[in-house]
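User: Show me sequence and structure for the first protein, then do the same for the second.

Assistant: Starting with the first protein.
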Amino acid sequence: MTRLHEQTTTAAAETLADCEVALLPTGAVEQHGPHLPLGTDLLAAREIARAVDAADTGVATTLLPTVPVGVSSHHRQFDGTLWTSPETFEAYVREVTESLARHGVRKVVAVNGHGGNDDALQRAARRVRREETAFLAPWNWFADLGDLDEELFDQTGIGHADAAETSIVYAAADRAHETTGVEESALTTAEANGPTEWGRAVHGAALGFDTADFSESGAVGQPTDASREKGERLFEHATDELTALVEWLADREFAALLPEPHR
């Protein structure tokens, strides 16, 4: 396992010289209903990235410190939520990526745990690629669950603080040897006071701008359907997917990842 922040500058020189792909976990500190910790998204991203960095993948990876606070102002009505503007988050991730490129590491995966970060990550990725500084691949652990969402939860995709997120917290906390922070006594309340689907529509207009517009508890979905066993299935699938992406990046020359020249 190669955690950059634990190394001296002398050791880092060797680590970065060998590094093929850097892993940058990105998350959020935001409400996840009355039953999950505020750090749900950063915990999931951090532990999935750690697991892949520690695995014997045959690819030299470097694990970067987690970016904890993300684009979460749509949860601001709930206590404890922290947020940055999309522009601040985008610039932060981009400049971290640019600093890595200065040390010779030009392939980075943003191991993301929060959907609200998506647009900013995509903009950062497009800019560093356009400028031919680096190749940043935004990746969400929940983006491609195979058939697990339907098999485990009888749903397509995931909600917010639902059974899938609750299950991944169990798995991630167990991997980190930390207490889960799951308030199991609040699972029923979270579910009863939240909708089953994200958002609010009025005559075809999407008017659910903030989570508080459509969820009293802050949760969306059925968290009572969560379990440790389901969390392990999700975690293993996510690490398999991230490993495959890392191997794909390592197999490609940096020049092959840049935009095609205009013809």
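Switching to the second protein now.
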Amino acid sequence: MTTASFPDLPGAVALVTGSTRGIGAGLAAALEAAGVRVLRHGSGQSDVAAMEEVLRADLSDDAGVAQLARLVAERTDRLDLLVNNAGVEVPRALKDLDGDILRRTLDVNLAAPVLLTRALIPLLSSGRNRSVVNMTSIHDEVAYAGNIAYVASKAGLEAATRTMALELAVHGIRVNSIAPGAIETDMNREVIEQMGRHNFESWIPLKRVGAIDDLAGALLYLASDASRYVTGSRLVIDGGYSQALLRYGLDT
């Protein structure tokens, strides 16, 4: 995707949380290639060493969310796009789940996007396209045995997306979600290989594991004026994976 595809994007300002690696880094790069000024966020020192300027904040508590909102306000007087991408995943079956894992997962994956969006309403209200995109998962609807905290957090974020869409429409702010399926990153490549890439290719109707680039066009669309009448929507990008309704062995 280029600026020619979305001519209103050059000059826009975006915040992408969790954008120093993985899906977030790929999405930030796609936005930058389209002419968007991207404020990148990372939670710690280790994931930001190679980048010139990253807004550092731990989104596992209210203070970290407030800190990130302050850092953004120091760097821009408007925000055209907020991508709530930062997240954690610590797979545990219910019998092995402890309160700390559950609370941290819900704090980072659900509470932080909601509270950060609230804190940035004034900057978003001053933006042009005024778009919020929440990164959820196909597991906001499809059960994933052995990962109850993550599933609950993404299901909650999807419900919050629809509710925020209703409440923020008065400000002209659109709120949508992208629900990825199996997307290969540096962090999960080893797991894909362990489970068997050929298995994923047989489970996914389009016969391949997704790439971060497969998400980029959807984000550019939701960030641009091309989606000006789209809010409260969930865009699934999974190669048809969730439609197959297949169990893939993590619960055995």
